[in-house]
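BACKBONE GEOMETRY TOKENS:
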Amino acid sequence: MGRLRNVLLDDVLVEQMLKINKFSHRGKEYAFDLQDAHEALRRLKPTPDKIKGLRGTNQDIYDLLVLGTTIAKTIDGG
């Protein structure tokens, strides 16, 4: 049941990231695509080497959500 719940919550988070996230490049706005959303989700999930206890791990996740992160993307060959 825990795994199913994680998958469902992951799906909801990806769906919401697709709705609310966009970026600008050379004056043009682009929406997040599925690959972008999955990369953002991957970055949010702590891996065993990044777990710092409950408080530290939650702080890292909070910082990513509030401060953001950069995801590299190729657009029009650039």
